[in-house]
Write a structure and sequence with these properties.
Blueprint (H helix, E strand, L loop, with lengths): L21 H5 L1 H10 L6 E5 L12 E7 L6 E7 L5 E5 L18 E3 L6 E3 L4 E3 L20 E4 L2 E4 L7 H11 L9 E2 L5 E5 L3 H8 L5 H4 L1 H6 L6 E5 L2 E7 L20 E8 L3 E6 L2 E11 L2 E10 L13 H19 L15 H15 L5
Antiparallel strand pairs: 1-2, 1-9, 2-3, 3-4, 5-6, 6-7, 8-9, 10-17, 11-17, 12-13, 13-14, 14-15, 15-16, 16-17
Length: about 375
């Protein structure tokens, strides 16, 4: 039996559970199964050529992009109609499958460069050479619309989502409703891509626990009171609360907020399977983890601030150093889980609750592809 047909077993009780087996991070067939069972059915950052991932008004026209470039490789386009409505559509012609847009266009229609089929900005076929009269395309040949959702300036999409986007985003919206999201502006210095020689899930494993901080991130460890670090889980995500050490900048939290009264340096949200939203006193950093292959991962950092200027400080003040430290340890773990001697280990009871939760969710979609 191929590993792609194996079940993932992660015990519900943390004290009894063991982490994922080495084959999950190393088997090519398992990786192919994961793309369809997990990544094609979950929400991810979508970025458009010339417009990034921003959910603001790009004006009349259409902008091409990709959903999970390097793995799902799904061609998409964002079309904005003259009436102000916008939608994310498939960027593939419904005649013979050519990618429609290679670059942004400011036009009320989209024409395929292969056989001339034309679509309006709602995705409806408006002309198709060679298909006149009774052969004219019907509505079933319009461009498929792809589900989307937004949080602040960030846009997310999913091909066949197993859950509504509002349910997925609920932890952010409920916990961060006080933030001035309408004031967020991009921070170019804090927005960049990194590539890691490791399986994407190992990168997420590392993000989801603070146990490694004193050992891997000495400078960050000075900013946080590690003994007060705490973790919460949600149905499809988790939150790590980084409590500030003395002298470290803290978040301004309103009365009634669950963390009001605490010296919080950062809130680290994770939304299944691969989206991270880090909240700092100066703004937010969205990290999108994108598999490029079995042992290759891109991590897209997109920073936004509500402060004047683009300076950052505190727990999120040196994201580049922290990222490089994480890359080194994750790549070392990747080499380790290839070992024939590797056996899944137990979860640290206090610090690895979110890692266990991640593995349980992976197993849920892996074992029951149709679950919701």
């Amino acid at each position: 039996m191929s590993r792609g047909q194996s079940r993932l077993e992660v015990a519900e009780t943390l004290a009894e559970a063991r982490s994922l087996p080495g084959w999950f991070y190393n088997d090519p067939e398992a990786y192919k199964v994961l793309l369809e069972r997990v990544l094609a059915r979950t929400w991810h950052l979508v970025e458009l050529d010339g417009h990034g991932g921003l959910a603001g008004d790009p004006g009349l026209g259409a902008w091409p992009g990709w959903l999970l470039p390097g793995s799902l490789e799904e061609p998409v386009l964002m079309a904005r109609h003259e009436d102000g409505t916008s939608r994310l559509l498939s960027n593939v012609c419904t005649h013979r499958g050519r990618v429609l847009l290679e670059a942004a266009c400011e036009s009320p229609s989209i024409r395929c460069a292969y056989h001339g089929r034309r679509f309006d900005l709602r995705g409806c076929v408006r002309g198709s050479p060679g298909f006149e009269g009774e052969a004219a395309p019907g509505g079933d040949e319009d461009l498929p619309e792809i589900p989307t959702g937004t949080w602040g300036p960030i846009r997310f999409a999913a091909i066949e989502p197993h859950q509504p986007v509002d349910q997925w985003l609920a932890p952010l919206r409920s916990r961060l409703e006080h933030l001035p999201l309408q004031s967020l502006t991009p921070v170019p210095a804090g927005s960049r891509d990194y590539e890691v020689n490791a399986n994407w899930a190992l990168y997420c494993d590392n993000y989801l626990e603070g146990l490694h901080i004193p050992f891997v991130h000495p400078a960050l460890g000075q900013q946080l009171d590690w003994s007060s670090y705490r973790v919460e889980t949600f149905p499809w995500g988790s939150l790590q609360v980084g409590v500030a050490a003395e002298g470290t900048p803290t978040l301004e939290l309103p009365g009634g907020h669950p963390d009001a009264g605490s010296r919080v340096a950062a809130l680290y949200f994770w939304l299944f399977p691969a989206t991270m939203v880090n909240v700092y006193p100066w703004g937010i950093s969205v990290n999108a983890v994108q598999p490029l292959g079995l042992h290759r991962t891109r991590v897209c950092f997109r920073a936004f601030t509500w402060c004047d200027g683009d300076s950052v400080g505190g727990a999120g003040g040196d994201l580049d150093t922290v990222e490089l430290e994480d890359e080194q340890v994750v790549e070392a773990v990747q080499r380790g889980v290839r070992s024939r001697m590797f056996r899944p280990g137990r979860y640290a009871p206090r610090h690895e609750v979110a890692v266990h939760h991640f593995h349980r969710l992976l197993a849920r979609l892996w074992n029951e592809p149709e679950c919701g």
